[in-house]
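Form 12-C: Joint structure prediction
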Amino acid sequence: METRELRYFVAVAEELHFGRAAQRLGIAQPPLSRAISQLERRLGVALLKRDSRAVTLTEAGAVLLHEGRAALDAVEAAEQRTRRAAPAGTGHASVVLATKAGASGELLAKLLHAYAAEPGSVDVDVVLCGPGEQERLLRTGRADVAILHHPFDDLTGFDTEELLTEGQVAVLPAGHPLTTRTSVQLNEVTDLPDLPLPRWPGVDGSYPDGPGPEAQSHSQLFQLAALGRTLLVLPDSARSQLNDDLVAVPIVDAPDVTTVIAWPPHSRSRAVADLVRAALRR
Amino acid sequence: METRELRYFVAVAEELHFGRAAQRLGIAQPPLSRAISQLERRLGVALLKRDSRAVTLTEAGAVLLHEGRAALDAVEAAEQRTRRAAPAGTGHASVVLATKAGASGELLAKLLHAYAAEPGSVDVDVVLCGPGEQERLLRTGRADVAILHHPFDDLTGFDTEELLTEGQVAVLPAGHPLTTRTSVQLNEVTDLPDLPLPRWPGVDGSYPDGPGPEAQSHSQLFQLAALGRTLLVLPDSARSQLNDDLVAVPIVDAPDVTTVIAWPPHSRSRAVADLVRAALRR
DNA sequence: CAGGGACGATACCCTGACGGTATCGCCGCA
DNA sequence: TGCGGCGATACCGTCAGGGTATCGTCCCTG
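Section 2 - Result
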């Protein structure tokens, strides 16, 4: 099976529409139809059910969508990591570490400091990205190692080491009635009609529907929270970034957030291993 | 990057010889040369160093060999699992379980029995294979779940659950001087010139070099051991398969063998999950 | 030192896979 | 009953990728 076929199938399986998929792939619809039916013939399995008016996945199609995405990620990772591999001595080697912008700042600083002190340490390219994006970077080889947050990020398929477990706090504007409390319950804050949760752009840049305000950065978030336009639920360590306008109240029943350092299980990079070791010794 | 290019590169990287690689791929040498240099141009990285007389991998080439193998495995796994996915109700679904022939027989029987008793259990295709082969089957999607043995099999990239940890024994012909001992040390048995370790065929069917006899099956192994032609080092549980001609003596300093059940981390199969649960409840 | 052989690169040709346009067939809907 | 949306089919052109022949280089050897 060629990656081209996989890409074609994944596009159709995601769009469930040959025309749109073809457009997304930058080709015409007929060759796409042909490629898919040829793939089905070669596999000997129906992948899509085309009854008039709607395209749906068969059982096998769902499997191929799932496994195919993983395979495409692996191929892309091979390509990216090869591209980044320094051509034997030329140029300086480096590691790419992906982390959520604005999260675990102190921990990260300590980690980088500890690693830099190691003998034989190389440059660390820190990539700050939006929530959930680190996982993608790691799976597609654009990053070598990442700081992830359980249970928000999907850790399946990665090797991980736990760095920190903490509770979560509700961030409220100073003066809000609940700020007099020493702790709150999750349902007390998530149901507040005047303080909806903010909305972040997805990978495609569009925003999910909902009542909350749209935000693109952490500074925007904090500003919106200070203005009483949104509620933030953040890990405990984020308190250090709050100013006087904002008050953090622990949420007693919110799930604990575990910060982990993660890397692809087959990684052979010494730099990654050293980074992980430094992180654990921190 | 297309899988064809990856396959070509992996072949050359493994053979370190364009002619042989081309032969293995069933194409002529010139198109292979072209494909590789084109790949290098597109990646912008040198993958191979061709100084006269020898082809060697560059740093980047080593990365692509490693990551590329993983990617090819993932693509093949996608293909195999899709092919095996029952076309929505047609035919009976089944799981493929790979295990080393002759190992952990009792444990396996209990596991299968426990699983079969579960509500909603499906047929389990048990594939008996040579040592180390299960891992490959699992990585390439020809199996859904496998019984592996730490530290012999490479578990990186799999989710696992431990089932059993045991010591190892030396299997000697009845009457051998060491059979009077209640335990031995590893170096006492591996250095015996009269009892070399047997040799197994590799994946390509050829035998490694060495003094030991060649064997293809477990019954051959036991027969060779009984004839005093070879030494066997096996996990403790293998004692149940020995007859009177053979005596097992515990090796005090041999590493413990852990039997695990392993599956790909992104598996979504309910059957696999049920099997693992049954294995733990066994 | 000349000749041969091993090996990868280059030159050149040819086939067919893949993409494009035009059109069909089917279905749902006004 | 005609129209529009959508996937499949027919047909055609192009170029990517495979084949053969040959070259250039290096090493080995007589």
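Section 3 - Comments
The CA atoms of residues 141 and 187 of chain B lie 39 Å apart. Chain B has a mean pLDDT of 89.
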